[in-house]
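Async update (no meeting this week)

Hi team, since we skipped the sync, here's where things stand on the single-chain job. The sequence we agreed to prioritize is pasted below, unchanged from the tracker. I ran it this morning and attached the output directly underneath so nobody has to dig for it. Comments welcome in thread, and please keep replies under the output.
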Amino acid sequence: MTPTKGKKSIKDKNKKKAASGSAPAAESLQTLEKNRIDHEELLEFAVALANRLQSCGAETYRVEDTITRIIEAYGYEKVDVFVIPNCIIAGLETEDGDVETKVRRLKSSDTMLDGIEKYSALCRKVCFERPSVKEARRLMYETDASVCHYGKFIYYLGAFLIGAGFGIFFGGGWLEMLSAGISCAATAAALSFMGRLNTNAFFKSFVCSFILAFIANLCGAIGICRNTDIATIGALMILVPGFLFTNSMRDIIYGDTMSGVNRLVQVLMIAAALVFGTSAAVSLSRQFFIVSSTILPFEHPLYIQCFAGMIGTLGFVLFFNMHGKGMPLALLGSIISWFVCSICMRLGLSEPIAYLIAAAASSFYAEIMARVRKFPATSYLLSALVPLIPGAGIYYTTDFIRQGMTAEAWAKGSATAAIAGAVAVGVLLSSTVFRMWGVYKKSRLSK
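Output:
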């Protein structure tokens, strides 16, 4: 009997050991489960914040950098992020080898400069203070509520100023300014209506360019303006995808090839829609009433051009919901860009070279302002680039296509594309230098 008792006692001891060891094991499992949930929450927060930036029109590299910075700020180094204009894929690998992945699809986006500034500021705050994920999410909801949206009056005022400013900028008089402003405001109403219906970009651009050109020609027929071409060019600035093209080139050169190609395809589709819409409106209007351009474009003094470009830029600043003390600095950037471009052309430089130098100066100014005010360079860069958008080149290309003048259309289209490409390259020259300097400073601090 004694051996039997000994065997039982050994089994009892083993059970007690197992029981005593099960508590730490269970506790460690609970800890791992808690950590896993924390990883999920952290990644979910980072992707949610990046998605908000993307919906406001932020660049691809900024969206990717937001996720990477937040994850690394909380001590995790193995992060993979892939972003294209309508999708975010992000993965986080823990020290235990667990991998969390989040996918977020973007259904719609718009250029919201105030949103880009505030969400970027939140990213910096979270990375510096490293609050709990729950607290960070609360701050994000507060930021959602603080993003400012102008009312309808300011929205239409901004659209009117875009047309009015560039009606003068491209050589028009007071009548052309008024006609372009009216056409632009009507286009803004159409954009707002079709935006609520989630209309695709091609159809939206086609309809809006048709409305824009038809109203401009109608103004010419009833005597409100004397040069319908100038009025149409000034109003067309609200639809020209100049920013989208610049961002596509930046993405391609930065190595975000899929994102850049995606944006470039959108640019080509919108450009084609503008060609069809404008040509259809001009052809139809000239079937119903007689339209003639009775004056040639004025050669305004440089200070008038800079002032008119600034007024048009103010319209874009309001249209894209920029707020705060940075607005005057953004308008100053538009004056600098056109002043530099005009001086370069007066010195005998070719148009593409002049636009390249002006874009580089604009990008340099935007990067300096971003570091001085601790805000993203996007707001200052977009504002500074507004006068460099080749709206006239796009309009005359479409007009040559409408008239069947293939050789002239090809020549004008090639020249316009060269200017747009020069602007993109000029932006990249300055922004790449600042980006390299930032990486260099970061590498020195990590040593």
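Quick observations from my side:
The beta strands are 79-84, 87-93, 99-105.
The chain has a mean pLDDT of 81.
Reply here if anything looks off.
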